[in-house]
Amino acid sequence: MELNSEDIAYEFFPFLRVYTNGRIERHILTSRVPPGLDPITEAQSKDIIISADVNLSARIFIPKMKGSKKMPLLIHFHGGGFCTGSAFCPIVKYTLSNFVSSAQIVALSVDYRLAPEYPLPIAYEDSWDAIKWVATHVHGQGYEDWLNEYVDFKRVFLGGECAGANIAHYVALQAGLVGLDRAFKIIGLSMVHPYFGLTQPDRLYQYLSPSTSGTYDDIMLNPSVDPRLGRLPCVRVLICVAGKHMLKSRGLDYYESLKRSGFCGDVRLVETEGESHCFHLLNSAETNEPFFRMLASFMYEDC
């Protein structure tokens, strides 16, 4: 039977649908909002270009200042299964505006390119390029004034949710393996509901990363098989899992693997019982306050 050009070739609910003519329809996290002053928190945000050659950009957030002391930096990687979402989503603006305001930090959310138009590992490569670009600001002479002026580069944290947590792990490990300017110190890694595959094999990951197996022998989906795992450069890692979501088991696997890896830092596990995946992006600010207070405490510990 001849296929109609609008027949469905792949369905990856809830992320995207792919048609036989190549058209891609994303189901979630597709809207964008401009940067600017948040009227409630008075946090400010603006968009910055990291590399015009590959259209790599980011959104940076700063709180209303409560003094002149420089602040920790959170480099954030958004979720969305590697194939949807952006640093410019309303949910990212709302969450990071609130978080930088309450925690008194600077946050930079990386808008890496999405698969399948840009197959994996492009999202990983973009994110690593973003880290290197941020590190060019450590001596106060970088391109972005907010980084030069407000960031304490001895207190850098990497973090993300879902696929963004997977990416945060990857770029942290790259920093440990390759090295960056010694003045750029990655203190912590926060992994919120990390995505390391749902099934065996993971059909979505196979489609988005056609050069890999999509199985648990792939180090991008299963860090426990990576002999370099213990070379993370940070001094503490926080792994958060949601009690009601299927990704919980993969987060627990990451926690146990990191403890066995020879990593010499502090590894912590936080399970939020009764909650589902990425609840911290969906619930009200009041409901999420204890969770974000815990994340802020993780960043300011020993500072």
Automatic annotation (TrEMBL):
InterPro entries per record: AB_hydrolase_3, AB_hydrolase_fold, Carboxylest/Gibb_receptor
Residues of the Alpha/beta hydrolase fold-3 domain: 74-280
UniProt similarity note: Belongs to the 'GDXG' lipolytic enzyme family.
Name of this chain's protein: Alpha/beta hydrolase fold-3 domain-containing protein
Pfam families attached to this UniProt entry: Abhydrolase_3
GO molecular function, one term: hydrolase activity
PANTHER family: 2-HYDROXYISOFLAVANONE DEHYDRATASE-LIKE, ARYLACETAMIDE DEACETYLASE
